Each structure stands twice: as structure tokens, then as C-alpha cells.
């Protein structure tokens, strides 16, 4: 009698188990890769927004007479936790001072590159926020704030008009932001992955006669 050829039932079952393990491993790797790609993409958007807001703040501090950015009565102040430590941070005000109406908004966060002063609505930590879009289509936003201190740089004596200051600008993300029906407040929640903080430090003031 001729012996039949093929796989036994045990061999087929072992093959199926090994294939299932391989597929599950590849699926997990794909999910991890996709998640990391999205995280890095969002971080890049946060860094771009941070750099833009830092440039604008540096301009405001160099031209204080037009923005009143140095007046303590002209800013909001909040205690904000960064890397486990609380800092006293500055935020743009709602309507107290002369500001760039195309940049600082009190009623509607329209586009990337604008800041919405959020004082009401549903807020984490029961505090005020300066909100900037990172991805408007997905409703992803970040919280902007900054600190200033007299500069300790060796060339600070070269500053004119005002004493040079160390400006540190922070951006915490990601938040999910939903404007309200009136768009005068909104809902800001951190139901996404853990909030991350990016920051940049620079010297501001009129230096060497140049703004």
C-alpha cells in the first residue's frame, strides 16, 4: 500500500498557532509604530507653535509701549505645575490691555497661530488658560504660558531702554478643545495621553539699539 503524503492534524494545528503568534506580534508592532509616529508628529506641531509664540512674545517685550506686556496688572497669573514643580506663570489677559486683536482672541479660536484666552467653561485644574491650536480638524490644542526674570547673561548690560530679561515660554499638550456654542468659552480636557511640556528660553529686550 502506498503511504499517503501531507500534514498531520497536529502539524496543521502547530502551524496555525505559530502563524497566529506571528500575526499578533506584527499587529502589536504596527500599533506601537503608528502611536509613536502620531506622538512625534504632534510634538513637532507643538514645537513649531512654541517657536512662533516665543518670537511674538520677544517682539512684544521689545516694544512694551505698544503692548503693555510688562505691566503686572495687564497679565493673568497662574500657578502651573511643570515637571512636578509649581511655577508662577504669566498668561495673556482677556480684555484688560492693548493687545494684537488678530493674535490674542477673547471670543473665538479660529486658526493655528492665534491664542484664545479661556477663563470660563470646563477647565482642568480650575484655572485660566491660553489655548492654541495644534490640529484644529482633530480638536487638539495646547496650553501656552511663560515666565520672565532679570537676565543673568554677561552681555545684559548691552540692553537699552529696558533691562534685559530671561523669557521662558512653555507649551503643554495635548488637550482636546471644544469651543462653546457662543465661542466665548469652551471645554478643555486632557483625556488623551499624558500631558507633555516643551519649553524654550531666550533673552528679550532692546539690545544694542536694535529691537
Please give a handful of descriptors for the protein shown:
elongated, alpha+beta, 36% strand, two-stranded antiparallel ribbon, 211 residues, 27% helix, 9 strands
> What would the average pLDDT be, to the nearest integer?
76
Task: Give helix % range.
Answer: 25-40%
What radius of gyration results from the CA coordinates?
25 Å
**What ranges have pLDDT less than 50 throughout 5 or more consecutive residues?**
none
Quantity of strands, as a count: 9
Number of H/I helices: 2
Q: Main beta sheet, described?
A: 7 strands, mixed
- Reading the helices and strands in chain order gives HHEEEEEEEEE
Question: Could you explain how this protein is built, in words?
Answer:
The chain has 211 residues and is α+β, with helices and mostly antiparallel strands. It has two helices and nine strands; from the N terminus they run H-H-E-E-E-E-E-E-E-E-E. Strands 3, 4, 5, 6, 7, 8 and 9 form a seven-stranded mixed sheet that branches. The chain has a two-stranded antiparallel sheet with strand order 1-2. Strand 1 (76-82) and strand 2 form a beta hairpin. The longest helix is centred in the N-terminal third of the chain and has 54 residues, at 9-62. The radius of gyration is 25 Å and the shape is elongated. The model has no long low-confidence stretch (mean pLDDT 76).
Tell me the layout of helices and strands.
Layout: H1 9-62, H2 64-67, E1 76-82, E2 85-91, E3 104-105, E4 115-118, E5 129-135, E6 140-150, E7 159-179, E8 186-189, E9 196-207
Parallel strand pairs: 3-4
Antiparallel strand pairs: 1-2, 4-5, 5-6, 6-7, 7-8, 7-9
